[in-house]
Design a protein that fits this description.
heterodimer; A: 441 residues; mainly alpha; 21 helices; B: 191 residues; 0% strand; transmembrane transporter activity (chain B); DctQ (chain B); cell membrane (chain B); transmembrane helix (chain B)
Chain lengths: 441, 191
């Protein structure tokens, strides 16, 4: 036993070497293609045993139980379920058709119509996959048929679809709120304007491009949709829109908790499908199974990350890394920019759930120590993750769009199309850091 | 990094947007069983939406909140979260970095699949052992009598004890599932 303890006594390494060893192990295991959730779990348990011995193991499991047992976290499956039902109904399609009125004879009209639909969809949903796919199926073929510039059309669909996690309700903000222990209602309120700001940047970009070079966005033929048809579309949309207003309104107004509001959202969207005559058992079961898989993925990354961060914290690693980061500069802005650089790099390879749960327990205390607002930082984080959805080589939005585009649109072309939109996201992020007042706080 | 199964599936079935097709063939009989039972926990999520809806009506309309709704919902969701992990293992849909993996030739990919499944098996077994430690504390009193740990609220249900038993059970099944995956990756000729 003595030999065994000596062999596994990681404490002899000191925290500097141990931190390095942990990062290297994580990195090596990750690039083999082993699932993130199990990589973090394994590393956490190895270091818990090596550093503290078997006594520390129950401490990790207790962290995991408090993670799984939170009432606020229940809002995650609820919002995912709401989005899954919405994706399966015809609400998005009708919304897109009804919004034609807005685009009208404007140059770049359909691209703008697409972006506006994206914002409304984003207000109904907190995740991105379904929205990108919907826009790819609804809007992209129309724009291509009308002779829109391909890259503009592709970029609008991906960037618009990714807005789902910037405009409240957003799962990214809920997870941030849980790790940073800040009010999710506050986060939603603070992210509202920045979300709209980003969307308006996209719209301005489309307008500027379209008016500078009319060839890239031909004006459509006069709209032949009849008034009766428009009325029918509007009728089917009243309830879903009311649901959005009600859900967000009750969160902003502080009337209901986020979890209660999310459940009302699910019921509201379900009632909408019933009234539209789209309700079927298969639709509900399909949506619920999809939700089970999505939250299973998110929660198990959370379990692994929570275990790893717990062990690392007990080892004194978080203090060590915090000192490293704060040692970069005396200027808080430089430290924030340094954090952004770390998030950009991680965002190219890692999923946002992993990034949020692994880095935020380190970053948020630093932000608090610097006297900065953790709610503002949550919005900054969500904006940063917007970039990670689009940035190569693993921007999920591009992969989602690729799954529904004609085969002649390659993944490479999608990523090239996204570059101007990534630039706009970085501009929005810069404005958010330079003028924190954009959050309204 | 992305969920590798989603995009392909969505391409073949745009109606059922990005819903994975079910357990992968390598998950075997166990995987199909896990997929079937999944529906139970999908219903748990639907049920919690309904319970929360009832609670909202009781609280804000009749001013008579229940003492059981919140804890029931938390428990239902906690079981769904835990089961969801197993469900996703059987679908091979856990998020991973495919930086190198995607460029591997078929024989190498097979070796990687086997080794990854085995390492995941170790991680799961390890975590199962940790979960066992907390299960022991939650189920037996120091004197050896059986007493399920309860939440300590006004309603005081034994859900924390039940959840710990559930987590341990799921980890055992998950470890077996990884063993099945490793075996099938090793023995089956091609995917």
């Amino acid at each position: 036993m003595d030999l065994l303890t000596a062999l596994f006594d990681f404490k002899a390494m000191g925290i500097e070497v141990a931190t390095g060893a942990m990062f290297v192990t994580l990195f090596l295991l990750l690039i083999t293609g082993m699932p993130l959730a199990f990589v973090t779990l394994l590393v956490a348990l190895i270091f818990a045993l090596g550093w503290f011995g078997p006594m520390a193991v129950p401490l990790i499991t207790s962290r995991i139980f408090s993670f799984v047992n939170s009432f606020v976290f229940v809002s995650v499956p609820m919002f995912v379920l709401m989005a899954a039902i919405l994706d399966r109904s015809g609400i998005a399609r009708d919304l897109f058709d009804a919004m034609r009125v807005v685009g009208g004879r404007l140059r770049g009209g359909i691209a703008i119509q697409t972006l506006l639909v994206a914002v409304v969809l984003a207000a109904m949903s907190g995740i991105i996959g379904g929205e990108v796919v919907l826009l790819g199926l609804l809007a992209l073929p129309q724009m291509l048929r009308l002779g829109y510039d391909r890259r503009l059309a592709i970029g609008v669909c991906c960037a618009g679809g990714a807005l789902g996690t910037m405009v409240p309700p957003s799962i990214v903000l809920i997870i941030y709120g849980l790790t940073a222990s800040v009010s999710i209602g506050d986060l939603f309120t603070a992210s509202f304007l920045p979300g709209l700001m980003l969307a308006s940047f996209y719209i301005i970009y489309v307008l500027v491009r379209a008016y500078m070079n009319p060839d890239i966005a031909p004006i459509p033929e006069p709209d032949e949709t009849s008034t009766a048809e428009k009325m029918r579309l509007l009728k089917g949309l009243i309830l879903p829109i009311m649901v959005v207003i009600f859900v967000l309104g009750s969160i902003y107004g502080g009337i209901a908790s986020v979890t209660e509001a999310s459940a009302i959202g699910v019921i509201g969207v379900t009632l909408s499908t019933m009234m539209r005559g789209e309700f079927t058992t298969e639709l509900m079961v399909g949506a619920a199974k999809r939700t089970l898989a999505t939250v299973g993925m998110i929660v198990w990354i959370g379990i692994g990350a929570s275990a790893l961060v717990g062990v690392f914290n007990l080892m004194g690693g978080i203090t060590f890394v915090s000192n490293l980061i704060t040692g970069v500069s005396d200027n808080p802005t430089v430290i924030v920019l340094f954090m952004m650089a770390i998030l950009f790099v991680l965002g190219m390879f890692l999923d946002w759930v992993g990034i949020a749960l692994l880095t935020m327990p380190i970053f948020v205390p630093i932000i608090r120590d610097l006297g900065l607002d953790p709610v503002w930082f949550g919005v900054v984080f969500a904006m940063n993750m917007q970039v990670s959805f689009l940035s190569p080589p693993f921007g999920p939005a591009a992969f989602y769009l690729k799954s529904v585009t004609p085969p002649d649109i390659s993944l490479g072309e999608i990523f090239r199309s996204l570059l101007p939109f990534i630039a706009l996201q970085i501009l929005a992020l810069a404005i958010l850091i330079a003028f924190p007042g954009v959050t309204g706080r | 990094m992305q969920d590798r199964t989603d995009p392909n599936v969505a391409a073949s079935a745009p109606v059922d947007i990005d819903a994975p097709k079910g357990a992968i063939p390598e998950a075997g009989l166990l995987g199909r069983g896990i997929d079937r039972i999944g529906i139970l926990f999908a219903f748990a999520i639907l049920a919690s939406a309904a319970i929360l809806g009832i609670e909202v009506v009781l609280r804000y309309v009749f001013d008579a909140p229940t003492i059981w709704a919140h804890e029931t919902v938390i428990f239902l969701n906690a079981t769904a979260f835990v089961y969801g992990g197993l469900y996703v293992v059987s679908r091979d849909a856990h998020i991973r970095v495919v930086l190198i993996y995607d460029y591997l030739s078929a024989p190498w990919r097979r070796i990687f699949n086997v080794v990854i499944s085995l390492v995941c098996l170790v991680a799961t077994a390890f975590f199962g052992w940790a979960a066992w430690q907390s299960l022991v504390r939650a189920v037996w009193t120091p004197t050896g009598a059986i007493r399920l740990e309860s939440s300590g609220s006004a309603w005081d249900p034994p859900t924390p004890g039940m959840l710990k038993i559930f987590l341990f059970t799921i980890l055992v099944v998950m470890a077996v599932q990884f063993a099945v995956l490793a075996w099938n990756y090793m023995t089956k000729q091609d995917r």
